[in-house]
């Protein structure tokens, strides 16, 4: 600092701190009651006191760094020190009320009649068709378009979402409220985050139902434009649970072009007949492999996605679209293995036909009318 520089005024420090966003709650720390106070001494050194939601908050370093960064740009500041403290129980209760509304019922916020969140349950007839990869890429593509997006990984048998999203951190708990880790702007929660190591989860229907219910009630997602649920493959109990817990959710069916895969995918989609859910559409994955000379090899045959869309259209007597076909691309798998979704990649991977297909499906889903639109309002003329 030059000796002539005037001291920073409180107002500009306050304004800079209003730009610090809590990494989990995604709101300014000033709105969350996390800024306890700050002082500026005669030499221009600023001390900021921040209240963490819980002791040992895994993101304490991130918050400290963000506070320092936000003030670094202000002229006249010679030093910044951040003092961390922890909220009292009253402060935590106040925070929860601010987030959920005072005395909010513990219900599923996505079922609130005023909710504008589109909920997509991603289903497949069998495992390994790329359901989780499709889920992650659609969610990240939507977030990159500026939408607020969440993922619930309910695939207990193969919870792969954290790996695909590059998430290693655990959710933070504020009493009974669970704050999901955020990656690429997507709030993500997985059953895998609640079991140790790589253990398989040997849960049966009722436990799965309870786990899903807890995710839907206790995880703080805030206002979302879209929520994706990665379901276990098949037509099991969880599909029924989803329809009971989230009757407004729409099913996205993922299949490969193979006729056997199409048959089971159709079965997964037909569940909608029993549950009364709507089907958002069909996505065909691993549609073909493009060789260097530009020719295509149809590794898993052809036409499965279209067949599923047509059969579901006739079973449900609705127009169910094939939303897109995603080719096989080793870079999609490599990105997944690294936790870097291909739709966010730069260079040739990012402009590959697979990335483009996924981005265009995401764009199509993003423009669908959501929430109240098209829903009966339950009013009748007097
Ligand atoms: N279009 C694609 N091109 C290349 N590899 C792909 C493609 N789609 C998925 N994969 C790869 O196939 C494997 C299975 O994909 P993924 O885990 O997404 O499937 P899944 O249907 O969710 O499986 P499960 O339900 O058994 O967990 C992964 O290694 C993934 O990287």
TrEMBL record:
| One function term, GO molecular function aspect | ATP-dependent FeS chaperone activity
Look up the coiled coil feature and give its residue ranges: none
Q: Where does ATP bind?
A: 125-132
| Gene Ontology biological-process annotations | iron-sulfur cluster assembly
This protein's record includes keyword Nucleotide-binding: yes
Task: Reply yes or no: does the keyword Membrane apply.
Answer: no
Q: Which InterPro entries match?
A: FSCA_dom_sf, MIP18-like, Mrp/NBP35_ATP-bd, NUBPL-like, P-loop_NTPase, YlxH/NBP35
Q: Which residues form the MIP18 family-like domain?
A: 10-82
| Keywords for this protein | ATP-binding, Hydrolase, Iron, Iron-sulfur, Metal-binding, Nucleotide-binding
Function recorded in the entry: Binds and transfers iron-sulfur (Fe-S) clusters to target apoproteins. Can hydrolyze ATP.
Q: Which family is this sequence assigned to? A: In the C-terminal section; belongs to the Mrp/NBP35 ATP-binding proteins family. In the N-terminal section; belongs to the MIP18 family.
Assembly: Homodimer.
Q: What is this protein called?
A: Iron-sulfur cluster carrier protein
Origin organism is: Crystallibacter crystallopoietes
